[in-house]
Amino acid sequence: MDIDGDATVEVTPEVRPTRPRRYDKFMYDFTQQSLPSCKPVLTPVWVISTFLLMGIICIPIGFVSLSASQSVVEIVDRYDIGCIPETFRGNKVDYIKDGSISKNCSRSIEVPKQMKAPIHIYYQLDNYYQNHRRYVKSRSDKQLLYGSKHTDTACQPEEYSNGFPVVPCGLIAWSLFNDTYRFSRRAEELKVNRKNIAWKSDRDHKFGKEVFPFNFQNGTLIGGGNLDPNIPLSDQEDLIVWMRTAALSSFRKLYGRIEEDLEAGDIIEVHLSNNYNTYSFGGKKTLVLSTSSWIGGKNDFLGMAYICIGSSSIVMSLIFLLIHLRTPRPYLDTSYLSWNW
Amino acid sequence: MKKGWKAMTGSRSKFGGRSGESEDGGDRPLVDRHPSRTVTLGRVQPQAPGHRTIYCNDREANAIVRFKGNSISTTKYNILTFFPKGLFEQFRRVANLYFLTISILSFTPVSPVSPITNIVPLSMVLFASLLKEAWEDWKRFLNDKTINNTPIEVLIGQEWQNTTWKDLQVGDVVKIKQDGFFPADLLFLASTNADGVCYIETANLDGETNLKIRKALEKTWDFVSPEKASEFKGELQCEQPNNSLYTFTGNLIDQKQTVPLSPNQILLRGCSLRNTVYIVGAVVFTGHESKVMMNSMNVPSKRSTLERKLDKLILTLFCVLFSMCLVGAIGSGVFLNKKFYFFGLWDPNLRPEFNPNNRFVVALLNILTLITLYSPIIPISLYVSVEGIKFFQSTKYINNDLHMYHFESNTPALARTSNLNEELGQVEYIFSDKTGTLTRNLMEFFKCSIAGEVYGAGITEIEIGVAKRSGVKLKEGISSTAIREKGFNFDDARLMQGSWRNEPNPDMCKEFFRCLAICHTVLPEGEETPEKIQYQAASPDEAALVAAAKNFGFFFYRRTPTLIYVRESHVEKMGKVEDVSYEILNVLEFNSTRKRQSVVCRYSDGRLVLYCKGADTVIYERLATGNNEIKKTTIEHLEHFGSAGLRTLCLAYRDLSSDTYDKWNEKFIQAKSSLRDREKKLDEVAELIEKDLILIGCTAIEDKLQEGVPECIETLSKAGIKIWVLTGDKLETAINIAYACRLISNDMKQFIISSETDEIREIESRGDQVEIARHMKLTVKHMLTKSHEEALQHLQTSSEVKLALVIDGKCLMYALDPALRVTLLNLSLNCTSVVCCRVSPLQKAQVTSLVKKGAKKITLSIGDGANDVSMIQAAHVGVGISGQEGMQAVMASDFAIAQFRFLTDLLLVHGRWSYIRICKVVTYFFYKNLTLTLIQFWFTFQTGYSGQRFYDDWFQSLYNVIFTSVPVLVLGLFDKDVSASLSKQYPQLYKEGIRNTFFKWRVVVALAVFSVYQSLVIYKFVAISSSTSVDSTGRMFGLWDVSTMAFNCLLVTVNLRLLLMCNTITKWHHISVGGSILSWYIFSFIYSGAFVNKGIYGTVFTLMSTGYFYLTLLLIPIAALSFDFLFLAIQRWFFPYDHQMVQEMHANETDISSSIGLVEVGTTQLNPEESRRFAMARLPREGSKHTGFAFDSPGYESFFASQAGVLAPLKAWDVARRASMRGRKKK
């Protein structure tokens, strides 16, 4: 009847050889809630030293990052308005849509500081919602990799054109950016390397080596750039860069690199063809030339953030230290207790 | 025969008072006007009309009626119904239903996320729940199978044949051997014992382990052998199956003779046979129709207050969700414009959600889109996690706590539900029963009064306390003449060793002792010597009385159904010992309305005597006239005993002439064989003979305070808990007990509202009920308002003064009137302690719900007896004392502990920790999901309100179930603010729970602010810092790189934030936090390396190849958490919580191992390691990890299962049985 075992009153502890001692000890500690633990108490000393430590860590990192960012030379040139002839200023959309007008445009830029190669060429678009839900999903990753058999309805309305599948399909590819830039210094052409601008994983694994553009931009509406149907997608780096959609509505994309140093005071002539329509939705187009450091492009934010956090930590630490020294909270001041002793 | 015994002894010397309203029967759980749940044990369902006729030993004849078979099934599901029914059960939870809706939505084109995002977490949650269900049901199935296949011997033809339980049919004649279980409800035909009796144990039914006698009808005594039994062709007419365990009405028609049947001939399924070689019985009710099965049903569980608050939080989250969606929807309607030609809005197949021509539809559909997108704001795994944590807390912590393990009775604490753990940390009012809860319920015969003479020189603890208060010093110490044994603690040489013959009234003494020795329902067990015999009694009072008789020289040693054997010594002259047998003619059993018990016996010389014992009120009503002197002095003695805290009973006898008896007996037999209202008729018949009694005297039994009760009460009241004692005792006793328990002290202002005033008595004596009621009401109203005003005055003048209220049941009845209720409540809430005396079970429940509903405070009721059931059910938390008495209280309770003092551990340690933990878990869930969703929300603004998702599907779906799930479980299991010993040392810490410090809106709002801040930091920092190229190659990040980066930072931040919330950090914290972050890296490596056609492809590798990644990963968590850290520092520095102060005061102390002091029993030579193991080994082993939270199947089934090797669910009554087993097993 007595199924649950009775009180064993014998003195010898019952030894269960099948279980290791550590397990027993753990189970005891677990059920009696006495697992070994440390009890961090946020004492004034801890608070002060933690803040101090945070400051000590963050400020140097901040300065290093900031100086890396400061060493980057960046030239920003917005050209979408400047490249429109005076006569079309009031009617930019007509200008850009009119195929008969030459879109060539020249701009000259002065190099403020010496720029060491490689100098990255970016185009920056603003108010361009590459991250809109309809836009983002209007692509077929399978088609990009395996070819037209994998055309996806997600690509609508750029899925089929004239009864044939479009490769690459979808709105993203269709709206491919197609401004082009050439640079010259002192009438001498600067070579622009347009290879290796896309991430390796995209080139190698996301865009097929056997997939060629087909039936692209053959519809009634032309969105953007065209593609050479003889070059496989994996080598169409412009497309690859474009199709790695940006996170925000204002973004830069790598165009190419100038592999020559530029000296301070150099005047760079930019010959661009202003093809891409950002005028209908009020977008901006900007050309950016930038060197890079280990931290990337010119971005003071990280360094500033580190310095801010670090210095405010130090300030906090000092404030607490002052409070602690002037009117120390008695460590065991029971008057803080809510009950009376 | 046991039920309600307590109610009787509890009513004590209640002479003069009316008994009707104050003690109205404790045997049936009285249902409150707002019953929170029902317990069916003992509650009678309305019977189906008619009766059933059974032809014993005749399968063909019975076949026509098609009785149900004996196989049972307690499973909830079968293979076919498992999925539909199980899923249905799951989707009855609102959270699951919500996520189902979201999942369905995510299949539609409006969804921005792939269905995976919502399906995966939902299915994982469902899978876990269903798995648990399936496993439990499988256990039940195995249990059922074992039970159904238990072998049984059934009579076929002329011999016993082995068959299984499930093949039994109504009418079969079966044979059950010793220690066997009855397979169905049986009609007891014959037994191997003489006189056709057998002994049964009903532990599985009601937890009572004392043996009970069942007696077969004389007609059927010879059907023992199979040859004889096969001749039996009786026809049985009986009631339809019902769930009343203690009643049975039926007739046996055999050879044209009708014989009435009583519960005495019925052996219920689930009971077991004892002290009998074998018995033969006929099957009456089978399978699900047996009484025990009809009693089993699910008990709806209580929900904790915190959980209800949680619902409100979830509701708020819904509101937040909808406002976020609304913002997004309006934005999308405004934003969408044809000028964004690259959206392809000229598309002829354009879906309405993008059609700028109908912006209203766009906004409307976008709401659906955004709901799907923001759905993780409701934490899906919250409920599962909290349930899991609570399950561990109750099964691993509470049930195994050595501090709450009562070694003497081998009883661990038992959490019968895991819903209410955190409720234990917020209790503000405790309603306690007295007898068996505050006191030990180990009854000791202490004093008596025989024929107007007091015997017994002992002094009770309460008397000592009273004396102390009045400044008199009483000498404590055991006198040399005192005799102590179980149930007997009597110090008076005048009655011992036969000296009573020299007393003024030796004949009365003799009657007194005989009455003690004869008039009872005790069963002797074991060797028939005074030293070794064990008395099995329904209540400890009875055993104490019989033990007293033994010590006075009237040793009751054997009982047969008709005879009681008493070894009488010193009757005529010293040293003479004589075995006398008394024929027991009738037993008029005890019940709570009668409050008395009588036995009619015949001496060997033919003298017919009725012995009666019972509550003073009922006995005095039935006394013969005359003898006023004795009556008067006895009343004085009764009152004296009562105020000393003793439990009193009056003893009386009556000599009967054989004429009178025979006439009466006829009526008695008639009543006994009636099929309808038998109990009522029996009571009426008993009235006829229980009159003209001659008072012998009274007994006084001491019920000692339980160990540690005063200390426990002091600790609890320091913790801000107010303790109310609700007792059936009379006023003086109650006050005395309250003093002894330190509930009331002399420096308290006492308000006593009592009906025992001369004025009321005078009006009562006039007998006009209407007038009495009117006057009582007025008086009570007057007293209440006066007391209330005084109380307010006292509180205004000085905050130091403590108030106490004492109110008796009769006044309470009027005070609970809706008109006075508010005053009563206001008055009593201002009092630190309240004592309600002479209250009925129903009033106990009313008082409890008055505070629960009227004051909206969290209440706990603790009690041990059947009369506490209603109170236990009415309170937020019900605690049962699993000890001496039956198991009804435990079975109705949520937690069962062995001793009142364990409440300290249960509330101050387990409750408090559980509350803090659950609060932290819930708020953390809230925080982490809000942060996740807010980042998504900020992103929405950047995407033209299109509802583009920011996170990858799988990242988002695994966020709750994998990447952040384990650390919070560790927090919920291991977090301790201060150690257990400090929790008890500083009971004031408990007030944090009463004030609900950790789950206020303020706390939630503060966390929400941090959540907003952190999400902004994470989102903005990542967005801004990735706006230029991130490495020296000059390449740019895309959407998925940025989102992965942000997700990574979020994950690290959220996991580290958890560590900031912890009061203790074990290695499991490190492992779980580290493991969670690591699991994300491992997952993302595999995931972003394997799926080429996903946006996420290669992002992690790309990210990790840049220095930017590491810089940001360091910066963002620091930036995000520094604000939190600052807040925590300021809070602790300037506004520390109490527990934080205690932490600081004891920061340098190592946690003294809590087991010290527990293992001192002869184990001094053990090293700590061994003593730990020893302590654990002593805890009763769990049968399995499964615990049935509800009465899903009768407990006895686990016995079979365990014999067959199936580990069955641990049932409440297993523990209950174990609790009461200890007496018998120690040999």
Tell me about this structure.
The complex is a heterodimer of chains A (341) and B (1227). By secondary structure, chain A is α+β, with helices and mostly antiparallel strands. Helix content of chain A is 29%, strand content 17%. Chain A contains 9 helices and 12 strands. In chain A, strands 2-12-4-10-9 form a 5-stranded antiparallel sheet. A 4-stranded antiparallel sheet of chain A has the order 3-11-7-8, with no helix packed on it. In chain A, strand 7 (180-185) and strand 8 form a beta hairpin. In chain A, helix 2 (44-70) packs antiparallel against helix 9. The longest helix of chain A has 27 residues, at 44-70. Chain A is extended and about 85 Å long. By secondary structure, chain B is of the alpha+beta class. Chain B is 45% helix and 16% strand. Chain B has 41 helices and 36 strands. Chain B has a 9-stranded mixed sheet with strand order 14-35-34-33-15-29-32-31-30, sandwiched between helices. The model of chain B is unreliable at 1-48, 1153-1166 and 1181-1227 (pLDDT under 50). Chains A and B meet through helix 1, strand 1, helix 2, helix 4 and helix 5 of A and helix 33, helix 34, strand 36, helix 37 and helix 38 of B.
What's the alpha carbon Rg of chain B, rounded to whole Å? 36 Å
Topology, number of strands of chain B? 36
Low-confidence stretches of chain A: 1-17
Helical stretch tally of chain A: 9
Instruction: Tell me, rounded to a whole number, the average pLDDT of chain A.
Output: 85
Estimated structural class of chain A: alpha+beta
Task: Compute the number of helices of chain B.
Answer: 41
Strand content of chain B: 15-25%
Assign the structural class of chain B, choosing from mainly alpha, mainly beta, alpha/beta, alpha+beta, or little secondary structure.
alpha+beta
Strand order, biggest sheet of chain B? 14-35-34-33-15-29-32-31-30
Largest interface: A-B, 118 and 131 residues
How many extended strands of chain A?
12
Round the Cα radius of gyration of chain A to an integer and report it. 32 Å
Give the N-terminus to C-terminus distance of chain A in angstroms: 53 Å
Sheet of most strands of chain B? 9 strands, mixed
